[in-house]
Amino acid sequence: MSRVLVIGAGGVSSVAVHKMAMNSDIFSHITVASRTKSKCDAIAASVKERFGVTIDTAAIDADDVAATTALIKQVNPVLLVNLALPYQDLTLMDACLAAGVHYLDTANYEPRDEAKFEYSWQWAYQERFKEAGLMALLGSGFDPGVTSVFTTYTKKHLLDSIETLDILDCNGGDTGLPFATNFNPEINLREVTAPSRHWDNGQWIEGPALTNKQVYDFEGVGPKNMYLMYHEELESLAKFYPEIKRIRFWMTFGDSYLKHLDVLGNVGMLSIEPMMFQGREIIPMELLKALLPEPSSLGPLTKGKTNIGTIATGLKDGVQKTVYINNICDHEEAYAETGNQAVSYTTGVPAMIGAALMVTGVWKGEGVFNMEQLDPDPFMDMLNKHGLPWKVQELDAPLAF
Amino acid sequence: MSRVLVIGAGGVSSVAVHKMAMNSDIFSHITVASRTKSKCDAIAASVKERFGVTIDTAAIDADDVAATTALIKQVNPVLLVNLALPYQDLTLMDACLAAGVHYLDTANYEPRDEAKFEYSWQWAYQERFKEAGLMALLGSGFDPGVTSVFTTYTKKHLLDSIETLDILDCNGGDTGLPFATNFNPEINLREVTAPSRHWDNGQWIEGPALTNKQVYDFEGVGPKNMYLMYHEELESLAKFYPEIKRIRFWMTFGDSYLKHLDVLGNVGMLSIEPMMFQGREIIPMELLKALLPEPSSLGPLTKGKTNIGTIATGLKDGVQKTVYINNICDHEEAYAETGNQAVSYTTGVPAMIGAALMVTGVWKGEGVFNMEQLDPDPFMDMLNKHGLPWKVQELDAPLAF
C-alpha cells in the first residue's frame, strides 16, 4: 500500500495528482491538501471524471508544522510530495521529520523576503533525515530535476567526462495575452530578474540580469532569443560534478515579455519590499500578482511547445563529443491530458516519477538527496513511458558561444 | 486692493503664486490654501526668499463647500484662483457663489470615477453666476487657455476666417528617469489613454488612443512623434468657432513613455476601477501614482524645452494662408525663476495673467466664460511680458497630414 500526501493545489500539483491516479498500481491512495480546499476538490473532481479514481482532499496551512504533522499522521502516507510554494519547504520537512515520512519537492526553499535560490537551508537537514532513517528528495521537477537526471545519464552512458554543460529551457508557448507568467508570477519574476550566475572553472561568475543573449533554433519551436540566467540546479550540478568546467543555464524570453518586465521594474512593481500606501503596507509584487492572470487560467489558451534539454561536451573514448538530450512537450496535448499546460506538465510528471521511484523503493536512501545522486536509468525510462519522451542527439560541435 | 485666494499647492499653483508676487502692483494680497498646509508654506517661503513678498497660507479641504466658503469670507478676496485638482472645480464654484467672489480655473471639472473631459458640468453654472453678478473664467492655463487665445488672436488679426486648426503640444523635456509624468500622473495618464477625438465638419470623430502618429520638427526641440488626442479646449473651440471645419490636438510622446503606458495598461495598473486586494479596495492607478516620482520632484532634473502652439489655415483677403503662433519655454530657465519646470510654468503663468485681467477689470462679465469669448490682445500682451513670449510665423503650406 503506497499512500501519498500531496501538498499544494496549483498546476504542478494537478498534473502530478492526475499522473499518480493514472498509475494507481503504484499510488494506491492519494490525498491532496492545500490552504484552499476547494482547489483540491477541483483536482479531485477532474481526476474522478478523467480516470474514475477517487482521491481525498484536505485543507492545510503548510506554514503550520503542528497542523501539518497532525494531517500527515491522520493520512498516514509513506511520502509527502511538496508541490506548494517554495516558501514552505522547511516547515514541510519539519513536519515529515515529526511524523516520520519521506519527503519530495520540486524547487528549493526560498525565504519570502529575499530571492536567493540556494540549497543551503535544505542541505542543513541532512543529519536529521539520516538519523530518522528518512529520505528527502530535492528538486524532482524538470528544471531542477530532469535536467540533472539528463546530466547524470550523460555521464553514465554517453561521455566519460563532461567539460561543459549548458541547460537550454525554451517555452515556445503563446497565450495570446499581452503579458502573463506561466507559473506563479512572484516566483517567476523573482527568478528572471535575479542577476545571472554561471559556474566557470571553480567559481561563480555573476552578471546583470538578462544581458547575455544568444539565439538558438529549438526543434519544434524555431529560433528564439535565450538569456543566461541563474537557476537552482546549477548549485547541485557544480557540487556533484566538480569535473565540469563550465555550467550555464539559458531560458528563452520574447521581446514583449522583456518589455513588460523592464517597465514593471522601472516603476517599482517588481519590488518585494513593503511600501506604505494609504495607511498600510503593500508589497508591489503582490499587487502585480493579483493583477496578472492566474497561471492556471492559461491552460486552455496556450499553444506551442516547450523544449528543455542539456547540451554536454566532453570526452568519449578520448574523442571530444557534444551530446544533446531534450524533451519536447506540446502545450495543447498536455492540456488535453490533465487540464494543465506544458509548463505545469513538465514539472508535475517528474514529481510523480520521483515519488513513484521512492514509494516503490527503486530510489532509496537516508538523508537529503539531490537528483544527481541517484541512478538515472529508471527515471529516464519512466519519462519515456509517462508523457515526457526524450531523445539523444550528437551535435557536430560544441555551442559556439 | 486686489486680494486673491489661490487653492492648490502643486507646481502650477507654485508658479502662479510666484508670478503674482512678482506683480504685487496687481495682486496686493495673496493667500494660498490646500489640503496640506505645509506645501503652501513651502511656496510662501520660496516667494519670500526670491521676491521678499509675504503671502498667507491656510489648510483647506476643497471638497468641503462650507469650509471653503468660510475661508473665502475670512480671506475676503475678489477672486478665487482654482489650481487644485479638476475634481474640485464644482465645489469651488459652489463656494464662490456662496461667498460672492469671482472664479478662475485651468482645467475643466472631472468626476473622480470617470475620464470625460467636458465642460457641461461647469457650463451648467451659467445662470447662477449671471444672477450673482459674478464671473467664472474656465481653462486659463496653456492648453486649455493660451491655445484658445492664440486662436482668437488669429481670427482677430491674422485670418478673416479659419478653416482648419491644429494645436501642437510638444514637451521636449527629459528628466533622465525611465518613466515619470510631468504633472499629476493620474490626470496625465487618464488624458493620454482616452480615445482620440477631433472635430470634423460638425461632428466628433473618435479613434483609439495613440494610433494616429505624425512627425513634426519643433523649433528648439527637433523632430518628434506626435499623436492625435482629445483635449478639452477642442470642445470650447468647436462651440465658439463653428466656422472651423477641422480642429485637432496633437501631443508628443517618446517611445519609452508609450512603452511604459502600454505595459501598465496591459497589466491593469492604469485602471481607476477599485479592485479587491488583501481584503480591501485598491485603485491600481492610485498605487501607480504613489510609485511614480512626485512631479514636483522633477523640476531640478528636467532639461529641454516645451513648444506649444496653434497652426491655423484660412483666408486672409481672399488668399489661403497658414499661420503658426507658438511659445517655446525652457525647462531649466523656468525652474531657475520659480523652482518649477516648464510644464507647470506654462500653465501657471496664464493662470496669473487671467487672474490679473479679472482683478483689474480688463476682462469682466457676468456668467461662465471660456477663453474664446474674451479679447485676446491684453492677454497676448501680458504673455510677452511675463515669461511666455510668442511669435507668429506664416507657413508655406497647410499641414500635409
From TrEMBL, chains A, B:
Ranges that cross the membrane: none
Residue ranges the record marks as coiled coil: none
Saccharopine dehydrogenase-like C-terminal domain sequence ranges: 141-388
One Pfam family it belongs to: Sacchrp_dh_NADP
Chain ranges of the Saccharopine dehydrogenase NADP binding domain: 4-137
Cleaved signal peptide residues: none
Top-level lineage group: Bacteria
Gene3D superfamilies: Dihydrodipicolinate Reductase, domain 2, NAD(P)-binding Rossmann-like Domain
InterPro entries in alphabetical order: NAD(P)-bd_dom_sf, Sacchrp_dh-like_C, Sacchrp_dh_NADP-bd
PANTHER family: CARBOXYNORSPERMIDINE SYNTHASE (PTHR43796)
Name of the protein in question: Saccharopine dehydrogenase family protein
UniProt source species: Brevundimonas goettingensis
